[in-house]
Amino acid sequence: MTRSSGCVLLLVGALVGVAGVAAAAQEAPLVAWTGGPTPPLALRELDGRPHDLTDYRGKVVAVNFWATWCQPCREELPSLERLREAMRGRQFEAVAVNVAEGESRVRRFLNEVPLRLPVLLDRDGETQRAWKVRGLPATFLLDREGVIRFWYLGELDWAQPAILRTVESLLAGTP
Fold first, then answer.
1. Rounded CA gap, 53 and 4, in Å?
2. Which of residues 84 and 3 earns the better pLDDT score?
3. Read out DSSP for 102-144?
4. Angle separating helix axes 71-86 and 161-171, nearest 10 degrees
5. Torsion angle, alpha carbons of 132, 138, 139, 145, to 10
6. Beta strands in 12-68, from DSSP E residues, in sequence order
7. Which of 102, 114, 135, 174 has its CA 20 to 30 A from that of 108?
8. Where would I find the H helices in the chain?
9. What pLDDT, in 10s, does the model give residues 41-70?
10. Residue 66: is it exposed, middle or buried by C-beta count within 10 angstroms (0-12/13-18/19+)?
């Protein structure tokens, strides 16, 4: 299996093919998280600025794991950026965690696809493993207390009404 064809794997009782995941991604709501407590996340941006998940307490946070070689990731990130912009001025943040790639590769990607959301570097993949990420893209939606409430493995359009309702319910404090 090549890196790009293995980009989206979904293990929830059964393995679903990449084509099935891509088709379902356009309709699928976020999945309730049952994978245990929220792991730590303390990483740096390309410019060296530190980010710690605990600094985001009081905000709803989307944590997206991605890689430059993953085509669904490349297509999803602008959608996540638009959600962040739509939520500007509200207690919402989105962060993109690049998994185990070099700074130069990430910089080249950001020259092609400029993002204003924080891009964090998981240089050795330790954070990915701690978060039990088994495929890319993978996104976790955390409530204001920093607890993972929902997740999705695969590409999503973050403007879907069902997703927006979920984000709004977390902002209102009613997951």
1. 29
2. 84
3. -HHHHHHHHHHS---S-EEEETTSHHHHHTT--SSSEEEEE-T
4. 50
5. 0
6. 15-16, 31-32, 42-45, 50-52, 60-66
7. 135
8. 18-25, 71-86, 103-112, 126-130, 161-171
9. 999 999 999 999 999 999 999 999 999 999
10. buried
